[in-house]
Write a structure and sequence with these properties.
The complex is a heterodimer of chains A (236) and B (540). In chain A, 17% of the residues lie in helices and 40% in strands. In chain A, a hairpin with a 6-residue loop joins β1 and β2. Chain A has four helices and twelve strands. Mean pLDDT of chain A is 92; it is low at 14-21. Chain A is an alpha+beta fold. Helix content of chain B is 44%, strand content 13%. Chain B is built from 21 helices and 18 strands. In chain B, the strands form six sheets. Chain B has a five-stranded mixed β-sheet with strand order 2-1-3-16-6. In chain B, β1, α2 (53-69) and β2 (73-80) form a beta-alpha-beta unit. Chain B is globular, with a radius of gyration of 29 Å. Chain B starts with a helix and ends with a helix. Residues 12-23 and 495-506 of chain B have low confidence and may be disordered. Classes of the chains: A alpha+beta (236), B alpha/beta (540).
């Protein structure tokens, strides 16, 4: 009996290690699904079918969900995807989804247009934050559009405003300016992604001109880079 | 048995009382004889600004000035930058009994708020009050006189026989034009813009020229638009497609809706207009804000020729606009013309009247409602009207403000700088002043807000379907009309208000009460039968 038990345990261990070693292939695509390069080359209003991993999503509303997704090659912004509230709860970070919709562009932001449909697939992956600080102000930054990225050693030039010019109220999107190497950029805390009760919202509200900070977030675009920040801390 | 029955009846009474609690709406507002200055009132004001800090500052100053006059009224400002957000929040707060006191709104929205019981205060009695009404003797500020309010604007807040809103500012739409490009294409702007002219120039602008290079992503030969040497050009962009459809139908004299809530939008004129739009979306000559982005961004980057937006968006339009959302190095130098929207019949122009109105929500304390009215009326005072009107292409809603020396001086200084006297902004304002008699509004009823959204969605869907290469034919429109009717539940709300009401299922409390009453009667009957039987036994 002991021998049998030992044998079973050994098998279990071997299988466990094998399972641990199984690495998610984040660039492989199912049949009929575009690679990131194909998606990138698709024209506006072309039909697109993508596979990616949910990294975050904005708050659900009226059967719609806006999702930040990524695969091993690039990022996707899936705007107002058709989604029930129950399904939205299933789309935790890491969830693999297949999305069918149309490609569009809004003020420089390439996205899967509103009304896209999705299905959940097997697989999970959380994208690490890629440090893109060195690409700020260069044409290379757009290659990271919609990816989860990091900006390090940024200096606060303008404290946070509710709405772009301060005409809003607490709970609205926060806009603040940060600089690097003499160039200033507008960053945002998108309130539907990180609301007023989140750590990042409170931290950004408290930022002072001259603070030097490290940030992580999604490389969103609005008439130029306009990242949606999800974390902020004092620069190391 | 008697005791059990008594206890049961008492319990039923308690349950019945509980069922009533909290379900009764507010009593109608009753005009107080006096305003109690010994009592402190705290009122909330949900205001809307056009993402314009100056406007938010003007509200704050108006509140500070008002509070100096009425130290017992504290006004809490909650700024919004979107009418729809206010609408959604009001609907949510009606359910919880936490509506604001004073609220910037559209008349269409008020029609929906009115489905609650005494939710919005009818203003007729407040208007007429000799003490606190327009120009009232007990006001602590120089109140606007009734005859000073521009009649067309005031009447927009009247429906179901009552005034439910006062106008705050008025605007219309304007066509902001890259005149330099129009002329480069060999056209001359007519005195009055027509749809045919706009479509013709827009199509001419879509001409491309091939380059010697190859697109690295697609592998295709590179090209740019001939007119701007850029790869991006949307010659004609419309911000509010709701207005686009509504105004076109009005210009054509075609059906949209009636005062009784009947809906007439699904007609052949609508279909024909959608076909025209589709044909220009197909060539890339036309797009919308929802599909592409802000018209101002394209216009200022030399990527648009005709940008139609509110006159209240004028400060964003043009090379030297005081408010800009694109990088400075993307701005293109051009001459901006400001004209009324394209017309079907230029001799009989028709354009929409829009802009913020003010409504007052009912409260248990009539004194609180009166305090709200005092503040709302203060917003019509000349200083507030003139200050706010200057922030955008708005027109004050009182003749006192329109004829104010300070305001007239402002209008006369058109183009003196690119800030307060920005020419595009003042031209947009003058456009409405000159065309007030040509403005119109659509009927207001419960459901008119949905119909407005549906009008725009017809254009959005047609444009999107066209660029996605779907077949646009009669079958498409049949299906589109069906989908939009269902999506916006058109006709349902208006039917309720017009005809016999379907009140739906009874509330739980009512069901409990009625069930209890039936049980009580059954028990009484059983008791009576038992008593009768006992008597019969005794007598036997």
């Amino acid at each position: 009996m002991k021998k049998v038990l030992a044998l079973v345990l050994a098998f279990v261990m071997v299988f466990s290690f094998a399972a641990c070693g199984k690495k998610e292939n984040t660039t492989a695509k199912s049949e009929g699904v575009m690679t990131y390069a194909q998606y990138d080359a698709a024209k506006k209003d072309d039909k697109v079918v993508i596979e990616a991993y949910v990294q975050a999503h904005q708050s659900w509303w009226d059967n719609k969900l806006t999702v930040y997704a990524q695969d091993g090659d690039g990022g996707y912004f899936i705007y107002n995807m058709t989604c029930s509230e129950a399904d939205a709860a299933k789309l935790v970070p890491g969830t693999k989804i297949k999305v069918t919709g149309y490609k569009t562009e809004w003020s420089g932001e390439y996205e899967v247009a509103d009304g896209a449909t999705f299905e959940i697939e097997e697989g999970s992956w959380i994208a690490p934050a890629t440090d893109v600080t060195k690409y700020l102000g260069t044409d290379d930054l757009i290659k990271y559009q919609n990816q989860f990225v990091a900006f390090k050693g940024m200096k606060v030039e303008k404290a946070a405003l509710y709405k772009w010019d301060g005409s809003g109220k607490p709970g609205d999107d926060l806009y603040f300016d940060v600089s690097k190497d003499g160039k200033t950029y507008s960053f945002t805390v998108e309130s539907y992604l990180c609301d007023k009760d989140t750590d990042v919202y409170k931290a950004v509200e408290a930022l002072k001109v001259g603070d030097v900070i490290d940030m992580e977030g999604f490389c969103y675009w609005y008439e130029g880079v306009n990242p949606h920040i999800t974390s902020v801390k004092a620069a190391k | 048995m008697k005791k059990v029955l008594s206890i049961f009846l008492v319990a039923i009474m308690i349950v019945s009382c509980c069922a009533c609690h909290g379900k009764i709406g507010l009593d109608p507002f009753v005009m107080p004889e006096e305003f109690d200055e010994g009592k402190t009132y705290e009122i909330t004001f949900w205001a809307k600004n056009d993402t314009n800090k100056t406007q938010a500052d003007i509200y704050a100053k108006a509140i500070a000035d008002f509070e100096k006059l009425y130290p017992n009224i504290k006004v809490n400002l909650l700024p919004y930058t979107d009418y729809t957000m206010i609408y959604n929040d009001v609907i949510t707060n009606i359910a919880t009994g936490t509506t604001p006191n004073v609220c910037i709104t559209y008349p269409d929205h008020i029609a929906t708020y009115l489905t609650g019981s005494n939710t919005v205060v009818p203003l007729d009695e407040l208007f007429e009050s000799t003490k606190f009404g327009f120009g009232g003797s007990s006001l602590k500020y120089k109140g606007v006189l009734r005859q000073d309010l521009i009649t067309e604007f005031l009447e927009e807040g009247k429906f179901d026989g009552h005034y439910y809103a006062i106008p705050f500012m008025r605007s219309t739409e304007a066509c902001y034009i890259n005149k330099t490009f129009v002329e480069s294409l060999g056209f001359t702007l007519p005195e009055k813009l027509t749809w045919d002219f706009v479509w013709e120039v827009s199509e001419a602008a879509t001409e491309k020229k091939l380059l010697d290079t190859v697109d690295s992503k697609t592998g295709e030969q590179d090209w740019v638009y001939k007119i701007n040497n850029q790869k991006v050009l949307i010659p004609f962009i419309y911000k509010s497609t709701d207005n686009m459809m509504i105004q076109y139908l009005a210009q054509k004299g075609a059906g949209y809706s009636r005062e009784d809530g009947s809906i007439e939008i699904f007609n052949d004129t609508t279909k024909d207009f959608l076909k025209v739009i589709s044909s220009h979306a197909k060539t890339g000559a036309f797009s919308t804000f929802k599909i592409s982005s802000y018209p101002a961004n394209f216009l200022n980057a030399g990527q648009c020729i005709f940008a139609i937006d509110s006159t209240a968006g004028a400060t964003w339009m043009g090379t030297h606009a005081p408010l800009v959302d694109i990088a400075k190095d993307k701005l293109v130098e051009f001459e901006t013309a400001v004209m009324p929207i394209p017309q079907v019949d230029p001799e009989n122009p028709k354009m929409i009247s829009q802009g913020p109105s003010i409504c007052i929500f009912n409260k248990k304390d009539n004194g609180e409602v009166l305090a709200s009215w005092l503040f709302a009326q203060y917003l019509l005072s000349t200083d507030v009207q003139v200050a706010y009107a200057k922030t955008e292409g708005y027109v004050p809603v009182t003749s006192a403000a329109q004829n104010d020396a300070n305001y007239l001086d402002y209008l006369n200084r058109e183009g003196e700088d690119n800030n307060e006297y920005y020419d595009v902004k003042i031209k947009a304002t003058k456009l409405l002043i000159e065309n007030t008699a040509n403005t119109f509004t659509t009927p207001v009823f419960n459901g008119s807000a949905s119909l407005r959204n549906a009008a725009g969605q017809l254009i959005e869907n047609t444009t999107k379907s066209t660029t996605r290469k779907e077949t646009i034919d009669d079958a498409y429109f049949e299906s589109l009309y069906k989908d939009i009717t269902s999506l916006y539940r058109l006709g349902e709300a208006s039917k309720e208000s017009a005809g016999k009401k379907d009140l739906g299922a009874l509330p739980k409390e009512a069901v409990t009460l009625l069930t209890s009453l039936v049980i009580v009667w059954i028990l009484i009957a059983i008791y009576a039968i038992l008593k009768y039987n006992r008597r019969r036994k005794k007598t036997k």
